[in-house]
Amino acid sequence: MNPATSHPVLTDGSRLIAEACVRAGADAYVGYPITPASLIFFYASRRFPIALAAPDEITALQWMAGLAAAGHLPVSATSFPGFALMVESFNMAYMMELPMLVVLAQRLGPATGTATAGAQGDLLLLDGLISGGYPFPVFCIADIEDCWTLPPIALRTAVDLRTPVVLLTSKEMVMTQERVDLAALPPIEPVRRTFYEGPGPYCTYGADENLVPPFLPVGNDRHQVRLNASTHDRCGIIQHTSDEAMANTRRLQQKVEARTPVLYELDEQEGAQALVVAYDITAGAAREAIWALRAEGTPVSLLIPKTLLPVPAVYADIIDRYPRVVIAEENLQGHLAHLLFGRRIPPHVRLVGAIGRMVRPDEIAEAVR
Amino acid sequence: MSRFLTDPELPFCKGCGHHLIVRNTVKALEAIGVQPLDVVLVTDIGCHGIVDGNFATHTVHGLHGRSVALGAGMAMALPPQKKVVVYIGDGGATIGLQHILEAARLNVDLTVVVHNNMLYGMTGGQPSGLTPEGFRTVLTPQGYPFPHHDLPRLVHDAGAPFAARVVGLGDFSDVLRQALETEGFALVEVLEICVSYGVKMNPDLRLKELAQQAGYEPGVWTRPSRPAFRPVPRETSSLLDMEPVEVRYTSPLEGRYALVLGGSAGEGVQQAAELLAQTAIAAGLHATKKGSYPVTVGVGFSTAEVVLSRPPIFYHGVTQPDAVVITSADGLENQRERIRKMAGGILWLDASLPVPETGAEVRVRDFRGRAGARNAAVYALWTFLQETGVIPAEAFAETVRRSSLGQHIPENLLK
Questions:
Q1: Which residues from chain A sit within 8 angstroms of residue B243, using beta carbons?
Q2: Which of A178, A181, A188, A237 to mutate to test the interface with B (most CBs of B within 10 A)?
Q3: Boundary-marking domain end, from A166, A184, A202
Q4: Quick one: which of A276, A280, A325 has its CA closest to A120?
Q5: Can you give the residue range of the structural domain that contains A294?
Q6: A224 and B235: CB-CB below 8 Å?
Q7: Residues contacting B334, CB < 8 A, separation 6+
Q8: Residue A44 lies inside a defined structural domain of this protein
Q9: Class of the B256-408 domain?
Q10: Per CATH, is B18-222 categorized as 3.30.1490.20?
Q11: Cβ(B104)–Cβ(B180) under 8 Å?
């Protein structure tokens, strides 16, 4: 730290997320208060050019879809009870191919659970969120720096892929205050948006080989725009199961699988026989565990996935290099482990989990030893 | 053919009132002099919703019951010369009633046309919230037993400048024109009988007499105009315009030190812990602070965990605290289990409290008696620093004095 150029403050991830979103070009926030996402709502209400208070989370997602259809780049933040209400509308935005970002701050469930306790309990929900099992991009914040760097990537992905995106986080990440050096935060490039400028007729879902159709807002004076949440053809006309409509539906999966950025941290140590895999709030505990293990002379490697869905193939490549794998996450079921291995966890894979508290570094270290 | 249509052959049953709604809509749009691309037609789920393909306007086909909220998002973002028209059925209006009332209350610039054919036509003729009492449906062959919602009056009460109900016969385009010309929210309920299910189950009923019997009174309900809700993007300033914490103290701490402060809500626990974390930063340390409290605000416990560390902090949980500072009975009760498990460390305890079972060294101090309930937390942390020297206590006192709390702290308390 250079005192002459540093700018230390005590702040929380919520502030960084809200500011990063605006700097990246998000221009509308639609909120409904819910712990632990209310801090983001508070900051967003001060910072976004347009900040709206919706009467419920279904309305929030619908207003966002309307704003996105008209050319805005909207953001909301919520937690499971609110996100549950958003699910059908999120599917709608996915089918209409509308860019938006939902920050999902996890808390302890089931149901209302404990609003003021953290958890990592929603990943499997996200995996099956879209009816039919279609993937959408889910990125996950692993430390407070990610609160600054990941929102722009998530928003850029939403625009580039014309899709709703979830930025996954949790209570202890967005509500804990910590020392942040503001001078060390990298600059944020605004997301560049381009709208269709070609001749008519414009087909709302007419994608070329890059799989993402050019976007044009409703209400424009040049071309008719047809958005449709039901099965539709390239031009947005409702269909039953025509070949063209099925090809369009298949494209939704193809574009997300082909074009979602793959983000992860990999810290491999020579001679390591064990790999620790951890994401979200547990990534911090994993870093401390790695540090302690290496200090005592135990070589160990660390993988922190930040693109959670669709699951990047490279994670399997990395994991396959190790005779022992420890996956740590703040739940009982092993959500990421389930995504990586299914219900049959191989014998060389150990799961470390907890509910009602954070996973501790010593628990991870013990599983490695 | 009207310039608002691409195909005059509408996809509805023969004799369905939806034909008339489309024709009257088109006539009203022509009357107000807009162009097709000035109009966004938002449709719901139901037979009316398959008409998108016939319109030359922008078209948006959404979810069941959500079209008003979806259209509201667009109307908030589009300029006043653009018209957002929402088609919704009686079933959609039932499931999405909250969206309708909210759009009316905010005065979102929408024209909502409710196709009230008295039942769910697309799914087999089930009753909706707008089915009139006595009306026979496949689920209520003896007659529907409940009264219907009165939508125009509901939205009128919610603040809509324009609400109307028409019997869906003949030319009602002038009512639709008035709705389209309204600044803000307008709703027109059009009464029909579903020819597939309504007429079959109620063969003797005629639309006008049904409307009369059911108390479906045609009319127009207006309020004085008020500005439509169209949020204007505003200039805002960065959330990062924060005063840096100036590093001007030192700390002897080389490793990590975890402290738990437990007290009562409303007694400044969280603020005191935050000031401690800020002081740590001012002393060149890394620091984290997190709060824990029940979902009720203002009563019960309030606990804060502060980690101070020379190396960066990756894990900010507290497993084995080095210090637990308790200022009230709420805080003691909340932390009792952790205190019981402490095999080392120090417990600072307010003198008013019973000494709990613990393996920690216990130091009883008169926080509340000396500082009062409101300042007990700050005083307790200052005491903790005085006795440990983890950070200079004077540095903490200075941070407190510079904070919003400073003016409320007695001058000699932190000396």
A1: 9
A2: A178
A3: A184
A4: A280
A5: 264-368
A6: no
A7: B262, B292, B301, B303
A8: yes
A9: alpha beta
A10: no
A11: no
Beta-sheet strand order (sheet of A8-12): A8-12, A177-181, B286-292, B301-309, B256-264, B323-326, B346-350, B361-365
Task: Walk along chain B (415 residues) and give the pLDDT tens digit of each residue.
Answer: 899 999 999 999 999 999 999 999 999 999 999 999 999 999 999 999 999 999 999 999 999 999 999 999 999 999 999 999 999 999 999 999 999 999 999 999 999 999 999 999 999 999 999 999 999 999 999 999 999 999 999 999 999 999 999 999 999 999 999 999 999 999 999 999 999 999 999 999 999 999 999 999 999 999 999 999 999 999 999 999 999 999 999 999 999 999 999 999 999 999 999 999 999 999 999 999 999 888 777 789 999 999 999 999 999 999 899 999 999 999 999 999 999 999 999 999 999 999 999 999 999 999 999 999 999 999 999 999 999 999 999 999 999 999 999 999 998 999 8
Nearest-CB residue to A52 (from B61, B231, B291): B231
Q: Alpha helix locations (H) across B206-261?
A: 207-214
- Tell how strand A324-329 and strand A164-170 pair up: unpaired
ipTM, two decimals, is 0.97
- State how far the Cα of B121 lies from the Cα of B137, in Å rounded to an integer: 10
Q: Cα separation of A35 and B294, whole Å? A: 11
The total of structural domains in chain A comes to 2
Interface size A-B, in CB pairs within 8 Å, comes to 219
Which alpha helices (DSSP H) does A296-354 contain, by range?
Answer: 313-319, 335-341
